[in-house]
Amino acid sequence: QVQLVESGGGLVQAGGSLRLSCAASGTIFSINAMGWYRQAPGKQRELVAAITSGGITNYADSVKGRFTISRDNAKIAVYLQMNSLKPEDTAVYYCRTDHIRDGQLYIYWGQGTQVTVSS
Predict the structure, then answer these.
(1) Which of 9, 25, 31, 117 has a CA-to-CA distance to 103 between 20 and 30 Å?
(2) With 80 as the cut, is the pLDDT of residue 111 above it?
(3) What is the pLDDT of residues 72-84, one digit of tens each?
């Protein structure tokens, strides 16, 4: 099992910044990708940003140029630097890791951290 623990959420004014962190522990095997998703009230969970083991990144159009994802393979951690935050960024942010073993995909989620952006 893989445990993911997120931190760094909170309340910030529009235009401000936050940095989310996610650390993985447990039986770690072959992480293919790490990413951040978010879910606002009444909406479906959506991809915010992801990064592969090779460092290839992918961002939602709504956060391009404002958010930066990075990972530390030695610490088995992924980070999300969020700048120029907007009220529409308010959501619960979830960390996710994708693992491949014997050709099968395993997905793990963190418990989520609340990000609230006030106008």
Answers:
(1) 25
(2) yes
(3) 988 899 999 999 9
Q: What single DSSP character describes residue 84?
A: S
Q: Which residues contact 72 (CB under 8 A, 6 or more apart)?
A: 78, 79
Amino acid identity, position 27: T
Amino acid symbol at 107: I
Q: Are 57 and 51 in contact (CB under 8 A)?
A: yes
Structure tokens at 32: 């293919």
3-state secondary structure of 42: coil
CA distance 90 to 70: 21
How far apart CA 6 and CA 2 sit, in angstroms, is 13
What's the maximum distance between 2 C-alpha atoms anywhere in the chain?
Answer: 48
Residue 13: partners with Cβ closer than 8 Å, 6 or more residues away: 117, 118
Dihedral in degrees, nearest 10, Cα atoms 54, 60, 66, 67: -40
